[in-house]
Amino acid sequence: MTESLRCPAMDQSTAAPGRLERALLVGSSGGHLTQLLALEPWWREIERGWVTFDTPDAVHALAGEEHVWWAAHPTTRNVPNLLRNTRLAWRLVREFAVLMGGSVDVSSAPGEGSTFRVTLPTTAEASPPGATMLPGR
Predict the structure, then answer these.
(1) Which residues contact 85 (CB under 8 A, 6 or more apart)?
(2) If 134 and its partner were Cys, which of 5, 29, 94, 100 is the partner (CB 3.0–4.6 Å)?
(3) pLDDT digits 0-9 by tens, 84-137
């Protein structure tokens, strides 16, 4: 796991308007990861990051990927791992939103719960110039 999603800037001036620039692919290390890997024609040409469980099959499947975050497991009846994964998810969502020119807000009121609001730009041009993704691992 890394402390920041930022890496040296990449030139984004050649990107086609409206084209997806980057994606965060999240799934368990079994069938969900297999299905995400099957979508390779879709994600092959974009900058991407992965979040999954640190299991031997996932480590092998993602060995060639540069940006990988390993979620803690097991999560069934394991509150410490649930809290670790919540912290990881919050950090990734927040940093990806900012990286893409958006923001994340949280509001909370006693007896009403909490609201997490993610705001993202609707066009590729809205991303900050030179914004790039992530050192992983």
Answers:
(1) 71, 72, 75
(2) 5
(3) 998 998 899 888 888 888 899 989 999 999 898 988 887 655 555 555 555 554
User: Rounded to an integer, what distance in angstroms lies between the CA atom of residue 66 and that of residue 6?
Assistant: 13
Two tokens, residue 41: 């024609």
Provide the b/e sequence for 21-54 (b: ≥16 CB within 10 Å). Answer: bbbbbbbbbeeebeebeeeeeebeeebbbbbbbe
Q: How confident is the model at residue 75 (pLDDT cuts 50, 70, 90)?
A: confident
Domain residue ranges in the chain: 22-126
Strand 103-109 to strand 113-119: parallel, antiparallel, or no bridges (unpaired)?
antiparallel
Lay out the sheet containing 68-71: strands in order across. Answer: 22-26, 47-53, 68-71
Compute the CA torsion angle 2, 37, 124, 88 (nearest 10 deg).
Answer: -30
